[in-house]
Amino acid sequence: MNNDKTIPAGFAGWSYSGVEWTDNTLEVPPLPKRGVRQVKYASDIIPKKGDIRIVRIYTSFEEDEFYLNYVPSSVYFYGFTAADLERSAVVRCKLIEVISSNDANSWIRVQVEEVIMISSLVDKFPECKCSPLPEEAGWQYFEEVKDTTWECIGRTMQDDVTEKEIYYKGHLILRSYEDFDLSISYFGNAVCR
Q: Is residue 5 part of a domain?
C-alpha cells in the first residue's frame, strides 16, 4: 500500500486516520511521547458543520485545510462494529491553531467545514476501479465486521503496520494505513474485487 499522501487510483482523496476528537474546547491535555497512542479523550459526538473542536492528530502538523476521520470512542478499545461504521465520517476541516505539537502528535483546534458520513461516500463520488491489496506472506489477516451492508477487513505485520479496508454494499470506501509515523486513509467509491 502507498503510505504517503499520493492518492492511489480509484480513490477521491486522503484523510488523517490517527485522530482523537475531544468534546473539550478549552483545556488541552499534555501530549504523549512518540510511539504512544493511548486514547483518553475520544468523543462520541459526531462533528457538525460549523463546530469548533480540539483534535489530537498522530503526527506533527502544518496544513491549513485537510480531512480527518471521525470514529466513535468504542472503536479505539474494541474495534469496529456495524453500528460504529454507521456513525463514522470523513470530516473536512480548517485549521484554527496548533495548540501544542511534538514530532509525533499535535493538539489542534479546527473548524468543521464538511461532514461526510462514510456510508455517503458511494453517493458523493463516482465509482472507480482500484487494485485490491495484494496477498503477501508475513501478514496476519483479520475481519472486524462482515454483514450484508458492511465489511471491515485488515491485515497487520508484527503489530507495527496495519492496513484496513472498509466496504459499504460491496464498494471500497476507505483504505487505511498505520505505522509508528503515519496514520492515513484514502476515501472514495472504489470497486476492486
A: no
Number of continuous H segments (helices) and E segments (strands) in the chain: 3, 12
**Would you tell me how many other CB atoms lie within 10 Å of the CB of residue 126?**
8
Per-residue pLDDT tens for 167-180? 999 999 999 998 87
Residue 34 pLDDT greater than 70, yes or no: no
Direct distance between the N- and C-terminal alpha carbons of the chain, in angstroms, rounded to an integer: 16
Enter the DSSP assignment of 119.
G
Whether residue 1 lies inside any domain: the answer is no
- Its domain, for residue 123, covers 13-191
Confidence of residue 10 (pLDDT cuts 50, 70, 90): confident
Whether the pLDDT of residue 13 is over 90: the answer is: yes
Computed over its alpha carbons, how large is the radius of gyration of the chain? 16
Q: Is the dihedral of CA 13, 16, 22, 24 positive or negative?
A: negative
- Our count of domains for the chain comes to 1
Predicted confidence (pLDDT) at residue 188 exceeds the cutoff of 50? yes
In this structure, the strands spanning 19-21 and 106-117 are unpaired
Q: Is 8 part of a structural domain of the chain?
A: no
